[in-house]
Design brief:
Elements (H helix, E strand, L loop, with lengths): L1 H8 L19 E8 L16 H4 L1 E6 L7 E11 L1 H8 L6 H8 L12 E3 L4 E8 L11 E4 L2 E2 L18 E2 L12 E5 L3 E3 L6 H5 L2 H11 L12 E5 L4 H12 L3 E6 L2 H10 L3 E4 H4 L4 E3 L2 E2 L1 H15 L4 E6 L6 H7 E9 L13 H4 L4 E4 L5 H12 L7 E6 L3 H9 L6 E5 L12 H6 L1 H4 L15
Parallel strand pairs: 11-12, 11-16, 12-13, 16-17, 17-18, 19-20
Antiparallel strand pairs: 1-2, 1-4, 3-5, 3-9, 3-20, 5-6, 6-10, 7-8, 14-15
Helix pairs in contact: 3-14, 6-7, 6-13, 10-11
Length: about 450
Amino acid sequence: MKEILAAIAALDDSAAGEADFAALPLPESYRAITVHRDETAMFDGLPSLARDPRASLHLDEVPVPPLGPGEALVAVMASSVNYNSVWTSIFEPVPTFAFLRRYGRLSPLAARHDLPYHVIGSDLAGVVLRVGEGVNAWRPGDEVVAHCLSVELESAEGHDDTMLDPQQRIWGFETNFGGLAELSLVKANQLMPKPRHLSWEEAAAPGLVNSTAYRQLVSRNGAAMKQGDNVLIWGASGGLGSYATQLVLAGGATPVCVVSSPEKAELCRRMGATAVIDRGAEGYRFWRDEHTQDPREWRRFGARIRELTGGEDVDIVLEHPGRETFGASVYVTRRGGTVVTCASTTGYQHAYDNRYLWMSLKRVVGSHFANYREAWEANRLVAKGRVHPTLSRVYPLAETGQAAHEVHANRHQGKVGILALAPAEGLGVRDRELRERHLTAINRFRAPAPQPVGGGA
């Protein structure tokens, strides 16, 4: 592993020459963050918030998996924590070993994923070490990020929109060998160029959430946002919402940002949003009790939105909290507007008054991650400096449990990064001129001061 890291450190050192990454010896094992199949009952009887990822996430030494056709083995410099990593760690809604077992039945190649441990993580930034047979677009030594869509594409359904492939899975959640590790196994069609002006940890942060927000808002598979739209964004300073806010602003639309604290409201304003609702300060309670929603609160919320938009309702709602907010989301959407939903972090059973959907010709659109083209376009916006990382804090790989605990408890802003092979923050920057132009935006979520950036690995 030291030889691999030294070769990566030399990539931006013109005096060092270019290493032959294909000739570098591979280790027999690597360090990875895992959950264990024999521990899936450890939180039985506990409510979600009482389940502690620090108890279930392990730093293990695991064997390097064999490389198959169409795949790439990547040296992971940095990764990040997503909600699916939290769900995996608390074994909700089901332990991920059910996904791995099902995938393993597909083929002898897929059987590699059905193991008594699960290497998790759905983001990475790193360097290609090996490519399998049939891979022509990528070679060892390429600096890459990975999106998390894993597909087989043997069925016709997936060839219009790969998200419709019956064998569509989320890498590192429904497959093994994820990105919270020193090495990772991905399909070659998950790879995208690493933005050259970003450090490893910054480049690893946008992948899953930026692509998800792009499909929800921009793509014709989602809301097909246009200039002038008003877009309601729940959790606008969080992992998904912070990228959604930037996409709305970059697309000439108006974000209406909903947050839960003055600090989070200030982050939205720093991104350029002017319409911000601190739901904690304004005391919205959309449920009277466990079984009864409160339409008066919907109306009060809708009135507040119109105060901020000059009397207009929102054209689009970016929904991801689920049960707690869905009734309000349907109500406040304008006639003919769209509620686009991905995930349900407060509960999967959504309830709403259908009169406000059916009689006002509104639409509810389900959206799940993004296809390769959507992920590529979302990454291109990052590479061009139109969308920026929202990285707030970085942990070493050994402290991934603590990082996941922070995300689970909603104590984080934006994205939480993880250093894998990268020995320090701020490494891997290749285009310093572009970086300097956007440094304030890149460091917007960081506190208290911007991190110094060097070259090296």
